[in-house]
Specification:
241 residues; mainly alpha; 0% strand; globular
Length: 241
């Protein structure tokens, strides 16, 4: 609930579970972060492993109103620290991207955009989004590739039942790139407000169709609500029976 602690919390949520990467990240913070934030982070370190996926998202949402009080200079430093933590291991995970973009979407100044696009005019972007969400549900499973494919297709098909087109194809994982999500969300932000409920219902159907909700999917759902200026109730992370 105060700026130093809010920043420290976000830094802590971006820390890796791997010791070597974690130490690199802490070294980055020592160079880049304000001393007060580093001091606020220290007592959080032993508590971070105990945080559940649901608590992680709830804590971020609690911190965001406080982070809105950062000055432009403070926000730039905060953003630079987040980027350094994410880049410490040389790769970008879905969790890292979603957390950083969720914060960015809440804190950046809103752009004045036209909201006149239809679902059909954004079918390519929607296919990418639903494919990524469908495959995100299979990240933590131990199923063989064929079963993962089947379950991802099940989720994708459930989403299509809520949309005005049937010809969309589930994209394979090797055609999905996290760097595509930024322009993708920017395009979806132009969707006509009356079209939003169908898209969000399709996303929810995609997430829930296989009987489980992963942390990645729950955070993507919240991010989508933020990007479309449509706050959504959080989805509880569940595991398939």
């Amino acid at each position: 609930h105060e700026p130093w602690g809010a920043r420290a919390l976000i830094y802590g949520l971006l820390l890796s579970h791997q010791a070597n990467t974690r130490q690199k990240q802490l070294d980055c913070l020592q160079k880049l972060a304000a001393e007060e934030s580093q001091q606020a982070l220290t007592p959080l370190l032993p508590l971070l492993p105990q945080i559940t996926p649901e608590q992680r998202l709830a804590l971020v949402e609690i911190a965001i109103p406080t982070l809105r009080y950062l000055t432009q200079e403070q926000y730039q430093r905060f953003s630079a620290c987040m980027d350094a933590l994410i880049q410490a291991d040389g790769r970008l995970s879905l969790n890292e991207w979603t957390l950083s973009r969720l914060i960015t979407h809440h804190l950046k100044k809103p752009d004045r955009k036209s909201h006149n696009r239809s679902l059909k005019s954004l079918s390519t972007e929607i296919a990418e989004l639903l494919s990524l969400i469908a495959w995100a549900g299979q990240l933590d499973t131990e199923h063989p590739p064929a079963t993962r494919q089947q379950k991802a297709q099940q989720c994708f098909t459930a989403a299509l039942e809520q949309l005005p087109f049937e010809q969309l194809t589930l994209l394979p994982p090797n055609q999905l790139r996290l760097k595509r999500l930024d322009p993708l969300l920017d395009q979806l932000a132009h969707l006509h407000p009356l079209q939003l409920p169908r898209l969000l219902k399709a996303v929810a159907s995609c997430i829930q169709a296989d009987g489980q909700i992963t942390p990645e999917q729950a955070e993507l759902f919240s991010l989508l609500g933020a990007a479309l200026d449509c706050p959504l109730p959080p989805l509880a992370v569940t595991k398939a029976a």
